[in-house]
Amino acid sequence: MRVYVYRSSRRRDTYVYLASKDAFEMIPEPLRKVFGTPCFALEFDLTPGRALAQEDPEAVRVSLRERGFHLQMPAENERPQ
User: Fold this and answer.
1) Cβ proximity of 27 and 16 under 8 Å
2) Are 8 and 35 in contact (CB under 8 A)?
């Protein structure tokens, strides 16, 4: 699966992964407003066995299949359980 990653122009260390280049219509409008202008960061093949620095590769694949996008936010935005 080819993946396209965009950095948020408004939120530090916040990225969105897309399965199609520039397919911003997959991102819900409220999230697009908060995210700001997407800035292309990188593209890569998300193959089985591929490790990612900040995300679980299987979670990214599932998000892309089910929602059409995957949002990566900085760790300080995570809530304790």
Assistant:
1) yes
2) yes
